[in-house]
Amino acid sequence: MATATDIIDLRRLLAERFPRAHLQRPAESALLTVPTGVRSLDTLLGGGLPHGGVTELVGDGFGSGSAQVLHALIRQTALAGQFLALVDGADSLDVDPMDDDVLPRLLWVRCTTSDNALKAVDLLLRDRNFPLVVLDLKSNAASELRRIRASVWPRLDRLREHHGTTLLVITPQPLVSGVTVRVRVSSQLDLSATREDADEILGQLRFTLERGAAAVPNDPAVQVA
């Protein structure tokens, strides 16, 4: 469980490291969508994640490609000169493949339980420093995820809506109620994919839209459930 000291330390870090992050937000009219850097996913969603909405990315089993989507999103956000806050529910992010110029644009909150991760997201949404927040619960144990109270999601949604934050939640199975968009990625990548070029790997990802409206679902990598 997160302690009071943990929360105070995180709040201090936000104030010291990202004092002007909220001033980096582009005009609202230019942010109808938030590009992920994955062409097939952005095509499916009409440009990217719905700005100011909640998107759930369901990673269907081992090697689904959810980690590759996250890496692409972090890279795309940095290239756009924006900041991203990642709450890593099981401390599973591999930063080795990332370029050095990407990391300064990333706030990585490393947690070991879903309970800690949810508390960190709550704080970040209240802080208003980051226009894009990602909660990665893909690697958390199923027993943990089953204990998440249903009331958590409406509370986070109200915070997100009040502050206009775009929230992406990555899960191993559908979990988040009231999402704007739910997309499943099920690509069955194996260990050999780690030796391939990043763009080649992203081209192998397969997406199914389970909730929300598809814009141009004419790509072989995307389907509508």
Could you explain how this protein is built, in words?
With about 220 residues, the chain is α/β, with parallel strands linked by helices. It has one domain (about 35-225): 3-Layer(aba) Sandwich (Rossmann fold), CATH 3.40.50.300. Helices cover about 30% and strands about 20% of the residues. It is built from 7 helices and 10 strands. It has helices at about 5-15, 40-45, 65-80, 115-125, 140-145, 150-165, 200-205; strands at about 35, 50, 55-60, 85-90, 105-110, 130-135, 165-170, 180-185, 205-210, 220-225. The strands form 2 sheets. Strands 5-4-6-7-3-8-9-10 form an 8-stranded mixed beta sheet, sandwiched between helices. The chain has a two-stranded antiparallel sheet with strand order 1-2. Helix 1 crosses helix 4 (about 115-125) and helix 4 runs parallel beside helix 6 (about 150-165). The relative contact order is 0.21. Residues about 20-30 have low confidence and may be disordered.
**Can you list the strand order of the major beta sheet?**
5-4-6-7-3-8-9-10
In what range is the share of β-strand residues?
Answer: 15-25%
Average pLDDT score:
85
Low-pLDDT windows of residues: 22-30
- Major sheet, described briefly? 8 strands, mixed
CATH class: Alpha Beta
Helix content class: 25-40%
Q: Under CATH, the topology is which?
A: Rossmann fold
CATH architecture: 3-Layer(aba) Sandwich
CATH superfamily: P-loop containing nucleotide triphosphate hydrolases
Structural class: alpha/beta
Oligomer: single chain
Rg of Cα set: 16 Å
Number of strands: 10
Number of helices in the DSSP assignment: 7
Q: Tell me the span between the first and last alpha carbons.
A: 37 Å
Sequence of secondary-structure elements? HEHEEHEEHEHHEEHEE
Molecular shape: globular
Counted up, domains total 1
